[in-house]
Amino acid sequence: QVQLVESGGGLVQPGGSLRLSCAASGSFIFFNDMGWYRQAPGKQRELVARISSGSSGGSTDYAESVKGRFTISKDNGKKAVYLQMNSLKPEDTAVYYCNKVSATPLRWGQGTQVTVSS
Length: 118
Prior knowledge:
Distance between the termini: 40 Å
Structural class: mainly beta
Number of strands: 10
Oligomer: single chain
Shape: globular
Strand content: 35-45%
C-alpha cells in the first residue's frame, strides 16, 4: 500500500527555517507531479509548492504567499520530496502534507506540524 510519511516540522521563531521531508513507499514520485500542501486551523488545504514529474531537477512552482522563501526538491533515488522553508512567518503555521498534484491524490499522510511563533 502506498504511503506518504512527512517529517521535519516543529516550533520555530519568525524568520527561522525548517526543512520538511516526505518519504514515499513507491516510485510514483518520478511519474507524478508532487506537491507540498498545508492546512491551517479552520482553513482549507492549499497547495504551496509543486515539482514536475521526471528527473529530480524538475520545474517548480509556488503559491504567491511562499514564493522566494520556500524551495521544493526531490530525490527520485531516495523516493523523497523536500520543502526548505526560510524566513518563516506566523501565517505559515499549519500542518504540512505531501501528495501527488492530481485530481486523484493518494491517501493523505498524517502530515507534520509547523508552528511559527515567538
